[in-house]
Amino acid sequence: MKRIIKIKGPSKNERIKKFRFNLPHFTTYYEDDEIIIDSFVRMIKYKIENEFCRNESKIVNLKIKNKKDLIVEIYYEATEKNKISSMGG
Question: Which residues contact 13 (CB under 8 A, 6 or more apart)?
Fold first, then answer.
């Protein structure tokens, strides 16, 4: 996933913020099938692109937790210009 989004990696910027969203009941729909996994990866990528207004260059880390719901945590460099809304979940 990190290769697809092209995350720039660790930052010395002390203003790292976290943005998080959930995909409810992910394990209910999940199958270990290449097509399904590819679809979920694309869906997560598009969600991130939309939330960051196609400005993913500020992302420094990405964590995906697979529990009952799939939880995606995105860490990004915060500036006054790139505040992300918390409407994602």
Answer: 60, 77, 78
> Which run of H or E residues covers position 4?
helix 2-5
Distance, in Å, from the CA atom of 27 to the CA atom of 68, rounded to the nearest integer, reads 6
Residue from 25, 2, 15 nearest 73 by CA: 2
Exposed / middle / buried, residue 41 (Cβ in 10 Å: 0-12, 13-18, 19+): middle
Domain residues of the chain, as ranges?
2-77
Element (H, E) at 2: helix 2-5
pLDDT tens, residue by residue, 14-34: 688 888 988 887 767 666 788
Q: Is the pTM of this model over 0.85?
A: no
